[in-house]
UniProtKB/TrEMBL annotation:
<dbReference type="GO" id="GO:0043190">
    <property type="term" value="C:ATP-binding cassette (ABC) transporter complex"/>
</dbReference>
<dbReference type="InterPro" id="IPR006311">
    <property type="entry name" value="TAT_signal"/>
</dbReference>
<feature type="compositionally biased region" description="Basic and acidic residues">
    <location>
        <begin position="303"/>
        <end position="313"/>
    </location>
</feature>
<feature type="domain" description="ABC-type glycine betaine transport system substrate-binding">
    <location>
        <begin position="35"/>
        <end position="308"/>
    </location>
</feature>
<dbReference type="InterPro" id="IPR007210">
    <property type="entry name" value="ABC_Gly_betaine_transp_sub-bd"/>
</dbReference>
<protein>
    <submittedName>
        <fullName>Carnitine transport binding protein OpuCC</fullName>
    </submittedName>
</protein>
<dbReference type="Pfam" id="PF04069">
    <property type="entry name" value="OpuAC"/>
</dbReference>
<dbReference type="GO" id="GO:0022857">
    <property type="term" value="F:transmembrane transporter activity"/>
</dbReference>
<feature type="region of interest" description="Disordered">
    <location>
        <begin position="288"/>
        <end position="313"/>
    </location>
</feature>
Length: 313
C-alpha cells in the first residue's frame, strides 16, 4: 500500500462524509414500526436496486414502503440513513470501507471486506448489511476483446508486461479524475510494476464520466480503459474485464445497508432483501443498467421485470 494512496483515502474518506451531515433534502423521516423508507443514489444502477427493494417489500410484507430513490451521492444517502431519514439503501463494500469508514487498507477478498465493513457499521452507527448481491462493481481495467485475444492479455499483469516489453504504440483511456488522483492510475501503475518510462510512451486520453471511454474502445481508437465491472457499456460492447490478479482493488460488492432497528421491528424485511439480493449478478446488473441508459426504460419497471422473472413477486 502506497503512503500517498493511504493519505488520500484517509483525507477523502470519513471526513468527507461527516461534512455532509444534515444536508439531506428529505422532508419526511424514515420508517416507523409499520413503514419503511428506501433511498438510493442518483444514477440508473442505484435507482433500479432501490426499486427492487420497494417492489419486493410491498409485495411480500404488510409494511407501507416509502420511495426516496434518487437522493444524490454517497454522502447524502449515508447521512440520510444515519439520521433516520431513510431506513435502507444499497451501498458498495469498497465505498463503505474506504469512503464512509475512512479505511486506507485495500481488501481484495469479498467475504473479508463484507464482514469487516458490516461489523464496523454495526458498532459505529447501528447499521447493518443484509445478504450481498452476486454483482461485483469493483474497479478494473477493461480491454477491447480482439486486441486482448491477439496479444494473450487476460490479467492486469499481462497488460503490465506488454507495456514493459516496449509495446507502447497504443492509446489508453481513463477518466480524468482517476488518471490524476493519488489512489488512481498512478497507484495502479506502481503496484503492477509498469515502468514509468514505458508508460510515458503510451498515449493517455482523458475523458469525463458518462461512457465515452467505452465508445472510444468500441470504435477501435484505444485498446483499454479504467472502469468498474457493472458498467452497462461492458455488456453492450462485449468488452473484456482484465483480472486484478495482484489484488490492487478492494472488492465492491453491492449490498443493502439498513438500520438494525428496522430489521428488529420487522424481521420480514431482512428475509425479503436476503432473497432479492442474490438474484442480481454482475451480468444482470449490466443488462438492466443498459436498459435504463440506452432504452430510456423506467427503473421501477426494470426492477419489477427482474423480480417477476426471478419469481420474487
Amino acid at each position: 500500500m502506497h503512503n500517498s494512496r493511504r493519505a488520500f483515502l484517509q483525507s477523502a474518506g470519513a471526513i468527507g462524509i461527516a461534512s455532509m451531515a444534515g444536508c439531506s433534502s428529505i422532508v419526511d423521516g424514515g420508517g416507523s414500526g409499520d413503514s419503511i423508507t428506501i433511498g438510493s443514489k442518483q444514477f440508473a444502477e442505484q435507482e433500479i436496486l432501490g426499486h427492487m427493494a420497494i417492489a419486493a417489500l410491498r409485495e411480500n410484507t404488510d409494511l407501507t414502503v416509502n420511495d426516496e430513490t434518487g437522493l444524490g451521492g454517497t454522502s447524502q444517502c449515508f447521512n440520510a440513513l444515519k439520521n433516520d431519514e431513510i431506513d435502507c439503501y444499497w451501498t458498495y463494500t469498497g465505498t463503505l470501507w474506504h469512503q464512509i469508514l475512512g479505511k486506507s487498507n485495500v481488501i481484495p477478498d469479498g467475504e473479508q471486506i463484507y464482514s469487516e465493513s458490516k461489523s464496523a457499521a454495526e458498532e459505529e452507527w447501528g447499521l447493518t448489511l443484509t445478504e450481498p448481491t452476486g454483482a461485483d462493481a469493483s474497479w478494473t481495467i477493461v480491454a477491447r476483446p480482439d486486441w486482448a485475444s491477439e496479444h494473450g492479455i487476460e490479467t492486469i499483469s499481462d497488460f503490465a508486461s506488454y507495456v514493459n516489453d516496449g509495446n507502447t504504440d497504443m492509446t489508453f483511456v481513463s477518466y480524468t479524475e482517476y488518471a490524476e488522483r493519488e489512489d488512481g492510475l498512478p497507484a495502479l501503475i506502481e503496484d503492477y510494476g509498469i515502468e514509468q518510462s514505458a508508460w510515458d510512451e503510451v498515449k493517455l486520453r482523458k475523458v469525463g464520466y458518462g461512457g465515452l471511454n467505452y465508445q472510444i474502445l468500441n470504435d477501435g481508437q484505444a485498446v483499454a480503459t479504467s472502469g468498474w465491472q457493472t458498467q452497462p457499456q461492458i455488456y453492450k460492447y462485449d468488452l473484456r474485464i482484465l483480472d486484478d490478479d495482484k489484488g490492487h482493488f478492494s472488492k465492491y460488492w453491492i449490498v443493502p445497508m439498513i438500520q438494525q432497528d428496522a430489521i428488529d421491528s420487522n424481521p420480514a424485511v431482512k428475509e425479503t432483501l436476503d432473497e432479492v439480493a442474490p438474484s442480481v449478478t454482475t451480468e444482470k446488473m449490466q443488462q438492466m443498467a443498459l436498459e435504463a441508459s440506452e432504452e430510456d426504460k423506467d427503473p421501477a419497471s426494470i426492477a419489477r421485470d427482474h423480480l417477476s422473472s426471478e419469481g420474487l413477486i
